[in-house]
Amino acid sequence: MRSRPAIVGELRVVGLGLAVAAGMFAGSLAGGAAGWGDLPGFAPTILTVALAGWAADRIRHTALAGVLTRAPWWLQYLTRAPFWYMAGGVGATLGILIAKKYGLLDIREIPIASFFARGANIYAGIQTAVWLLTEGVLKRDVT
């Protein structure tokens, strides 16, 4: 049976996917690129961002966990940030492309660079805030 922290961690990844999809939809809605009828088209983004975030975390952990066991908080953050940025960008872009392929979004031109940047910035920003509150400098100042 799984322990509670593992389940909470998995739900947090899905929550981040939901937040990125919501942010991308809100940006597209505000910019006039999407309407309320396009809301279901952002559903694949939830899954792809969650999967990309989970994969990036596993890759980072596998590659650097043994090296950074007693590293300072700022070095741990610096090794996580590029993975978060790439996970958000790749997950957001892949979700939009899947939605376009299956007809969930009615868009003619796909601005890949803007989708990548928006998804990457949202995901990395949320991950940075959560990490600073739970593991980073803010936690170390309290204890």
Can you give a write-up of this model?
- With about 140 residues, the protein is mainly α.
- The protein has one domain.
- The protein contains five helices and no strands.
- It starts with a helix and ends with a helix.
- The mean pLDDT is about 85.
Topology as H/E string? Answer: HHHHH
The 3D shape can be described as elongated
Distance between the termini: 32 Å
Q: What is the number of independent domains?
A: 1
Relative helix content: over 70%
What low-confidence regions span 5 or more consecutive residues with pLDDT below 50?
A: none
Strand-residue proportion: under 5%
Largest sheet: none
Q: What is the average per-residue confidence, as pLDDT, rounded to a whole number? A: 83
Radius of gyration: 16 Å
- Class derived from helix and strand content: mainly alpha
Q: How many strand segments?
A: 0
Number of DSSP helical runs: 5
Keywords:
mainly alpha; single chain; 143 residues; 5 helices; elongated
Overview in brief:
The chain is mainly α. The chain is built from five helices and no strands.
Compile the SSE list and pairings:
Elements: H1 4-31, H2 43-64, H3 73-101, H4 112-134, H5 137-142
Helix pairs in contact: 1-2, 1-4, 2-3, 3-4
